């Protein structure tokens, strides 16, 4: 790419910014042609778009520090991005400016299976770490459905979950520390390889902060011992309702499944058409039910699950006994589940994957509600979700070229999320707030609660130059005036 | 108590403060006689003392709000206190002022075993919750040795651990949310009964913040399913070294024990003299080794542990198979362990319980080092510790009436903690920084790291009136100038 690329209106300012960034990372690590930048106009949330002014690809912490200094000197906003798999617009460059793409900081720096940690750069893809740990007896537990693409930095930003969240928790439960470049370009080490640390738990604060505190440049992840074995069962039900009741029945029976995933009929058909796994396409719903742990307990737990399935009118179509998660049959069933979104891509030009949470016992209610929404807005909705967590992922299918469909999808999404709140749940289980759901925050939190969050954000990011308009409104005077720090000193 | 109590020098100011506080909580909920206040001059850390000006006992969140407003109006510092079991001076009223004692906010407000949470007031004693949950099939996992006295609010303040931390984690892993009165007297709800929440993880930030962000007035704790059963084994070894090697051996064998506690010979003798449990008083060290979980796996795991013990020259003196943690033999062994500190009270007029962490593999090194320290400073040191976590608790015995002994204990403690850092560990595993270890913070963190923590603290507590001089130095200009927020906007 050359320096004569298409320039924004204020050419001289923009070209000085570009020259300064080029001096930091070299011309090979910058994109600024409009056609190249188009790739970065959105992430997995395709409804809002904004082209960044420039995309830089740092290859070291020193690069990130220098880039942030340049942005501060030019007073332009900056936003980090990993693989762009965010489903909530977490990497949308709302006010333009500099996108800091971390995909070239992708090394696995250290693996210590004995003390159960690894140190990785933020651009390392989730599944690379899984592969690198093969044979060590330990693994990195968070396994988002997008794990073959999403980066560990992105997992940290959104506090990502996955099918095994039910038993193993979300990303924050598996991060021991980070190195972060703060918005003032200082580099701070938070946490460390040891499991507990004195002082404030800033690691927990940074995980899930969606880039609003700075740019994470290293992640120390905790590793989890592999189970001795497990059982993965495919349950087939006439209806989504009987399947959800079986989910409640399994939990009530005192079993802690490693995963409990549901696919509705639309989803089963899409997956089956795409991958030919042998899913029963007539089923009203399919449940993937998994237990893992001490081998001696597995058959008994699988039997208990089978009994619950039968009690709710379902049948167990497959039962896989496995010793490692690398066995072909095991991998096939999970590939089908994790490729569900890809399968939908074959049947709809565009789709919006929503992310809501309800108390597990409210699953039948929200599913019935979504049927109504689907009819009222004339939008097809497929469902695949982490049933054990009450974390729903309705997939709203539409054609983004039709503005009316876009409008209907937005309104339908909104109704579904409002119903989640009304049922005692929340508007995101694992994808984050991003730009998509900022307007929902006041429905979940009181002004004082939001002021406390804003006060913390402002402590790190007082000018709001880093990831502006993400997670919380930036610099809104109502919130600023109400922030606890300012009120107390007033 | 009457309004004519002994008054400090500035009688009129002090009496106005007292009158204002009395108007809030009523005369029955205030102490201000000097002889009554003496009880509150220190907590479990007896080396520094300071009498508060007044102690108030709120019985509601509204009381706490009104008390904080009075303190702000009078510009006096305030500090929360629970049962005063802190071992690091966490409740020392460093600058005098108002002590807010939460022991009359002690109700268990709700228990929901199905959704696995309970809501308690901060003054509820840890073991009360355990008792209230009997028969529900779930329990509150954090079980500090002081659990019959310490409050859940104190557990939250220090992010307390306990013998079962090894498998079940520390307090933060079992807190879903809090209600907190911020230093500006606003009331904020953080987290909730659901397991995941959008927005910043302020729950994790508040847990372990030692009262420097405000006063927690409600705690939503997560409850853990009881195991089907377990095995508790008493291992007897010739030396502390062979016992610590067995600890490493057990972990290396792939067992995740529920607890791995060590008592050295001095400790075994003290416990045996006090409680006559039948501990072998000639043993160089005793290990309490526990596994819990699926009953079908227990015998095999107990056998594996026994083999490791034998391989390191030890023997298994007792092996208790239990189905609940209420069985008498089970309770007796843990009573002995948890009363270790009390037992020391019978053999030494005063003692200082230290709290350090080393990588587990460094346990033999730190134990050898402590032997040398004991000799050099002529201070007897008993050892009881969470061996599985590498969390040591040397107990330094002395007579506080002898200033030279006090000096030697402080220097010996300091040397031990410095060695913990040198070995790759930290200066506190579970008791917190308090006032005792503030000076060690710069040895663990860079100025930028500390500035980031100070920035967060200042966001909540800008005037430092709430729990001053705890965890981090208050209002030191070096730190204030270096805080990221201020630097970025400078």
Protein model, in words:
The structure is a homodimer of 490-residue chains. Chain A is 37% helix and 20% strand. With 490 residues, the first copy, chain A, is of the alpha+beta class. Chain A has 4 domains: 11-101, 2-Layer Sandwich (Uridine Diphospho-n-acetylenolpyruvylglucosamine Reductase, domain 2); 108-195 and 207-225, Uridine Diphospho-n-acetylenolpyruvylglucosamine Reductase, domain 3, CATH 3.30.465.10; 229-422, FAD-linked oxidases, C-terminal domain (Vanillyl-alcohol Oxidase, Chain A, domain 3, 3-Layer(aba) Sandwich); 447-489, no CATH class. A 7-stranded antiparallel β-sheet of chain A has the order 15-12-14-13-18-20-16, sandwiched between helices. In chain A, strands 5-6-10-8-9 form a 5-stranded antiparallel β-sheet. Chain A has a 4-stranded mixed β-sheet with strand order 1-2-4-3. The termini of chain A are far apart. In chain A, 55% of the residues are buried. The model of chain A is unreliable at 1-9 and 475-490 (pLDDT under 50). Chains A, B: Its cofactor is FAD. Chains A, B: It is an enzyme of class 1 (oxidoreductase). Chains A, B: Its EC number is 1.-.-.-. Chains A, B: It comes from Paludisphaera borealis.
